[in-house]
Amino acid sequence: MCSQVAYPCGKIVVKGSKQYINAVHASLHPDNTKPAPRMKINEVLEEDTYVIEICVSNNLLDAVRSLCSTIDELLGLLEVIDSIEVYSSMGSGFMKSNTSMNSVN
Question: Which domain of life is it from (predicted)?
């Protein structure tokens, strides 16, 4: 495995039936044959386990962390916007019904 080199690594372990593991391997392996520059990918395929180890150089790791932080922030903002939109559409109807109830009294 590439964890023996001086690159930071992450590991994904998938377990399941032989048929499932073979299907996952067949789906992911083509993408793993040509990794991005400054990245190494090693795979171990056993009967009921598929291990993918991804190692990157330090400067690439920093870039990936920054990208992940940015994506997390954007997803959080989109979630807030979606919540506001749902709330405001519900709130508008609620406010109108309250107003009409108040005017009746």
Answer: Archaea
